[in-house]
Amino acid sequence: MKLFNYFRSSASYRVRIALEIKGLPYDYVPVHLVRAEHRLPDYAAKLGDPLLPALDLDDGHTLVQSMAIIEYLEETQPEPALLPQDPLARARVRALAQMIACEIHPINNLRVLKHLTQELHLSEEAKTAWYHHWTRSGLEAFERQLQLLAAERTAEGMPASQLCWGDEPTLADCCLAPQIFNAQRFKVRLDGLPLTMAAWEAALALPAFQRAHPSACPDAEA
After folding, report:
1. Over the chain, what is the mean pLDDT?
2. CB atoms within 10 A of CB 13
3. How far apart are CA 111 and CA 131, in angstroms?
């Protein structure tokens, strides 16, 4: 398999984590987002919408959209599992993942931030305020959801979660780690999020997350 990705891309980072958790070998193909290499003809021709990441499978097919890629990996390589077996628990994990992938990330990604400054002529200060507002409010909602799930687990006699759900990394952790990485880059306040930050710290201690970290990527920049 070949993963076309950028070391700081949140969506790319999610897929790298999933691949590492599942122990799946892949070729790392860097595509520099800031230099708009994803719009070069050779890459753009592969996709209807030239975004990152893209995963070339060994059979010649190409997958796009990080969540679809991870779900495909989960269905074709089910162990180690990124989704619990219980249907309710699976829905809980998917909801957490989508709070990040569908609520926080889409309005804070690179092309949106560029549009704010280049097309709408917002200042850098206004762009940063936009990012801080939507990231912080999204993470506060994520924290509230973790609190509700913690209470639910306690009421049902389940042990407290060390990660987003339980003690094994899930799809939710694949989404949380990149979001916190980017929040730190933009100096978003992360205080007052005890369950969120504890889950993130527990995930970062795992070898798969360390191997997938942007600083470990071949195209990493300071």
Report:
1. 96
2. 27
3. 13
Structure-block tokens of residue 147: 């609190």
Position of tokens 């989704």? 83
Please tell me the distance from the alpha carbon of residue 206 to that of residue 14, in angstroms, as a whole number.
Answer: 14
pTM above 0.85, yes or no: yes
Kindly state the tokens that stand for 44.
């753009």
Domains and CATH numbers, the chain: 2-80 (3.40.30.10), 87-207 (1.20.1050.10)
Confidence check: pLDDT of 13 > 90: yes
What integer is the mean pLDDT of 120-134?
95
- DSSP H helical segments within the chain, as ranges? 10-21, 41-44, 66-76, 87-98, 110-118, 124-155, 171-185, 194-204, 207-212
* Integer Cα distance of 52 and 7 in angstroms: 10
Q: Report how far Cα 115 is from the mean position of its chain's Cα atoms.
A: 22
Q: Is the dihedral of CA 187, 178, 203, 83 positive or negative?
A: positive
> Beta strands 27-30 and 2-5: pairing type?
parallel
Q: What's the rounded Cα separation, in Å, for the pair 121 and 161?
A: 44
